[in-house]
């Protein structure tokens, strides 16, 4: 567990990210893909049901012993809250109400944020635009671990710790790598979240609030669903920066595994990404990450 990683630096590439050019080529060859760029009619209902389910769980958490509260937070709440963060990812591309209603999408993302316990949605959208525009760009794409992280978490045991602390690095890294001024929507997000947390505390006490926070921290940390953090953009094959996963976890993660397809066509909602893959399969020439050796 103490062996250090063989690499001592990042893989530096001096060409533009490939998705923009591939998008042009695929649309020229498969114009029918444009028909998939429409709002997901079921997303708002699915997210609403998930938010209500977590509110019900909060009510039930009042009577739980602490050990069972944390067990439920990991086994149940962690799955729901992680899935909600991926729904927020989908909504950040205006897939709930369409590109013509950006305000509705932003406020709905704040609604989806409520069970997460901490304000997340507005800040995520602000930085996620850069992730698509400057994929892997030094100092621009805050999804890329810092040099400090790479140097410190260089053994299997430390990497395990890094995975467990993923929510903290995901939150703090933008503030260190590419800080931006707070927006009005971020302030609204924070106020709405604070009001929701305070209401839950006033109605049902401390345990439901701890349940929501533990669900987010555990579900986004060392959790089976969190594998997509590593699978999406860590270089398993030289020359390829984006990978897809087509397994069953996509059923509960809004098809986040279709990540090659998502970066090629960010305007396609998650429900249509499998259709996009079938339409342009030969253009997505990189097999999913499970086949890597």
From TrEMBL:
<keyword id="KW-1133">Transmembrane helix</keyword>
<keyword id="KW-0443">Lipid metabolism</keyword>
<dbReference type="InterPro" id="IPR011388">
    <property type="entry name" value="DES1/DES2"/>
</dbReference>
<dbReference type="GO" id="GO:0006667">
    <property type="term" value="P:sphinganine metabolic process"/>
</dbReference>
<keyword id="KW-0560">Oxidoreductase</keyword>
<dbReference type="GO" id="GO:0005789">
    <property type="term" value="C:endoplasmic reticulum membrane"/>
</dbReference>
<dbReference type="InterPro" id="IPR013866">
    <property type="entry name" value="Sphingolipid_d4-desaturase_N"/>
</dbReference>
<protein>
    <recommendedName>
        <fullName>sphingolipid 4-desaturase</fullName>
        <ecNumber>1.14.19.17</ecNumber>
    </recommendedName>
</protein>
<keyword id="KW-0472">Membrane</keyword>
<dbReference type="GO" id="GO:0042284">
    <property type="term" value="F:sphingolipid delta-4 desaturase activity"/>
</dbReference>
<keyword id="KW-0444">Lipid biosynthesis</keyword>
<dbReference type="Pfam" id="PF00487">
    <property type="entry name" value="FA_desaturase"/>
</dbReference>
<keyword id="KW-0449">Lipoprotein</keyword>
<keyword id="KW-0812">Transmembrane</keyword>
<dbReference type="Pfam" id="PF08557">
    <property type="entry name" value="Lipid_DES"/>
</dbReference>
<keyword id="KW-0256">Endoplasmic reticulum</keyword>
<feature type="domain" description="Sphingolipid delta4-desaturase N-terminal">
    <location>
        <begin position="5"/>
        <end position="43"/>
    </location>
</feature>
<comment type="similarity">
    <text>Belongs to the fatty acid desaturase type 1 family. DEGS subfamily.</text>
</comment>
<dbReference type="InterPro" id="IPR005804">
    <property type="entry name" value="FA_desaturase_dom"/>
</dbReference>
<keyword id="KW-0519">Myristate</keyword>
<dbReference type="GO" id="GO:0046513">
    <property type="term" value="P:ceramide biosynthetic process"/>
</dbReference>
């Amino acid at each position: 567990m103490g062996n250090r990683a063989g690499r001592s630096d990042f893989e530096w590439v001096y060409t533009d990210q490939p998705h923009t050019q591939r998008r042009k080529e695929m649309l020229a060859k498969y114009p029918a893909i444009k028909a998939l760029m429409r709002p997901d009619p079921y997303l708002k209902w699915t997210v609403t049901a998930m938010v209500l389910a977590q509110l019900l769980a909060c009510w039930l958490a009042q009577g739980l012993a602490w050990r069972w509260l944390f067990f439920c937070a990991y086994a149940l709440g962690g799955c729901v809250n992680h899935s909600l963060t991926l729904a927020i990812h989908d909504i950040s591309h205006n897939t709930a109400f369409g590109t013509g209603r950006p305000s509705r999408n932003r406020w709905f993302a704040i609604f989806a944020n409520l069970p997460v316990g901490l304000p997340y949605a507005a800040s995520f959208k602000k930085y996620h635009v850069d992730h698509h525009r400057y994929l892997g760009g030094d100092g621009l794409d805050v999804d890329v671990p810092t040099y400090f992280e790479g140097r410190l978490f260089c053994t299997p045991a430390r990497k395990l710790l890094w995975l467990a602390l993923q929510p903290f690095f995901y939150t703090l890294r933008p503030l260190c790598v590419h800080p931006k001024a707070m927006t009005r929507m971020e302030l609204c997000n924070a106020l709405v979240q604070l009001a929701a947390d305070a209401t839950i505390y006033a109605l049902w006490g401390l345990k439901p609030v701890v349940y929501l926070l533990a669900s987010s921290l555990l579900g986004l940390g060392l959790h089976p669903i969190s594998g997509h953090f590593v699978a999406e953009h860590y270089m398993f094959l030289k020359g390829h920066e984006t990978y897809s996963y087509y397994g069953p976890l996509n059923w509960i993660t809004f098809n986040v595994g279709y990540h090659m397809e998502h970066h090629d066509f960010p305007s396609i909602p998650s429900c249509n990404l499998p259709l996009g893959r079938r339409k342009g399969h030969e253009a997505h020439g990189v097999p999913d990450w499970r086949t890597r050796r």
